[in-house]
Amino acid sequence: MAQAKKAASIWDVARLAGVSHQTVSRVVNGSPRVAAATRDKVLEAITELGYRPNRLARSLAGGAVESVTVLTADISLYGPEAALRGIEKAARALDWSVQISVLDPADTHSDADIIARLPRAGEPTIIMAHDEPGMRAKQVLLDTQPQAMVAIGPYTAEELAASPWLVGMDDGKAAAEATRYLLDLGHTTVHHLAIPTSTGTFGGGRAHRAEGWARVLREAGRPVPEPVPSGWTIAEAFKAVQPLVADPEVTAILCGNDHLALATMRAAHLAGRSVPGDLSIVGFDNTPFSAYTTPALTTVNQDFESVGRGAFELLRHRVDSSIPRPVPGWPEPELIVRETSGPPAEH
Amino acid sequence: MAQAKKAASIWDVARLAGVSHQTVSRVVNGSPRVAAATRDKVLEAITELGYRPNRLARSLAGGAVESVTVLTADISLYGPEAALRGIEKAARALDWSVQISVLDPADTHSDADIIARLPRAGEPTIIMAHDEPGMRAKQVLLDTQPQAMVAIGPYTAEELAASPWLVGMDDGKAAAEATRYLLDLGHTTVHHLAIPTSTGTFGGGRAHRAEGWARVLREAGRPVPEPVPSGWTIAEAFKAVQPLVADPEVTAILCGNDHLALATMRAAHLAGRSVPGDLSIVGFDNTPFSAYTTPALTTVNQDFESVGRGAFELLRHRVDSSIPRPVPGWPEPELIVRETSGPPAEH
DNA sequence: ATCAATGAGGTGAACGTTCACACGAGGCGG
DNA sequence: CCGCCTCGTGTGAACGTTCACCTCATTGAT
């Protein structure tokens, strides 16, 4: 019955080593101003007692901030999940800790509830602002502690330039590129199965992918069909896309992400329409599975992991201005043509 | 330029409300022994100053522990991701915070590095022990702070009963069920594309899915082919499975998870083998996309989210013995027959 | 009228760190 | 030989809470 005896503190180590608590602190933090002999004594005491520093006490006492909280609505979505991975990697490299807090979309939490999630006032925070709960959290933190927050989301180049707390990729442009590609293939127009927008009570949230798609169609003088709204899940997408695959006039569908695209492929198959013969399908995000569907999915690659890393770097800069502002260096979204897209069938 | 003035503390509120700091604490924590008038004064001061409690200070001062750290090697894997979701939901319902720390498989971190990840000694921790780094972390924590840790992993009923810190599902049994199903369909034997095992320097880690599969074959007196080892990624699986799909003798493959199964479907397609006509494929985990592949994947459903929730409940019980031990109540793994499995082709 | 019980609130220490400073011992230049 | 700088180390106060205990009214029963 290993009794859970209290963990050793810096004072216990100090007593055992015959030095002051401050000297122990210096050793632990690698200060140069401590004699080699003393250091050894302290180190020995540390291993003997199994001492490990308490990070809570460290931050409380005003030591350097070494934690970041990620606010997101859904870690099962590929984008947020990959970005989280990037944040975590970058944080780990610097020995920062990562805390995640999931925003419940169904929940009617007040603004106070959102900030109550943070471990303390001024906690460095990264928000995945791709949907309504995220946009809302973004606004709350922008009002509360703008200097210690960064938001990740899809944004145009202008928005990015105007908001120093913003990190993201211009996926409107990427959607435009994909749409243009489909038109060039000979399709009269392109339909759009859309992910939920972040519009709502809070300004700034828009459907960038849908906008890029619509812009290209307008510029090309093509009819702009009403985008078909879908939820985030494959099941919802499968239901939503039915009218589209049933309509023989529809020859090309740009999907808001790869999961929606998979649902579309499935629906097309069940409706007896061949892909890409009768129907071209383009996804978004280059989710790992997309290269292995049959036929393999044409999609738009996005390096979310790098964006996550960039968000972390930017946050460090914003929290501590002595750290230089990072220059965003991740690749632009890029169309990856695989097997689900091709010229429309001859009439 | 909203100067980041220091956040209000409990003392500031006390001063403004004309009471002691302790009274503020009582109000914040909803103690009944405070007069209504006083409470109102305090609440007013709180909103006026925008006070929010500092969770770090709270835990430091010996308040109830309200955070849990999750140690995992890979959040992009469906199992850990879903379990994490379950943990997070359960934690959120109780206003606990969740911290995640990713174990780098490539990293040669020492045992000390692993526990250095924890915010403090005795931090309640849940470990995803499905692979080598996870098993290792499990062992370290078991040695260090057994009373404040819980591990999630695939285990047999006996192992579960023997280890009070263990939560999981018997996926060996599920693999057995799937194998039996394929044999009953008429296949002479079943091949296995295996996920990495957790065996290695640390005992206890085994390949439960592979064991369940092999056991059924032996019991049925069928040849037990060498399992084909694959990495976790789809790309690795695609490479690993090539010899299997190229071999016309192989008529049924049980895959270690749905991603491996997808790779197998793709490889089979490219090798000109029809599914399920020439080759039956069964996956594992019932990953969301699996119902929407073409053909739809036969797989084994596992309710990882419930397991995550169960792990959290068990952890609470272990940290605070006044909380009753939860009874594991999640559904057993269950075979879901869809379209990738069928009787072997006639010779 | 007295006394115990109860309700409302205050006081001081503790949690485990870091920060700002103070202090003595050598070394070195003048 | 004196003053000053640097090195190594110690002292005490903070950080923002909670905990354990104390005090002072008020109440109600005896």
UniProtKB/TrEMBL annotation, chains A, B:
| Molecular-function annotations in GO | DNA-binding transcription factor activity; transcription cis-regulatory region binding
SUPFAM superfamilies according to UniProt: lambda repressor-like DNA-binding domains (SSF47413), Periplasmic binding protein-like I (SSF53822)
Asked if the Swiss-Prot or TrEMBL record annotates the protein with the keyword DNA-binding, the reply is yes
What's the protein here called? LacI family DNA-binding transcriptional regulator
On whether Zinc-finger is a keyword of this UniProt record, the answer is no
- InterPro entries this protein is in? HTH_LacI (IPR000843), LacI/GalR-like_sensor (IPR046335), Lambda_DNA-bd_dom_sf (IPR010982), Peripla_BP_I (IPR028082)
PROSITE patterns, A to Z:
HTH_LACI_1, HTH_LACI_2
Q: Which Pfam families match?
A: LacI, Peripla_BP_3
This protein's UniProt keywords: DNA-binding, Transcription, Transcription regulation
TM spans (from-to) = none
Domain (HTH lacI-type): residue spans on this chain: 8-62
Top-rank taxon of the source lineage equals Bacteria
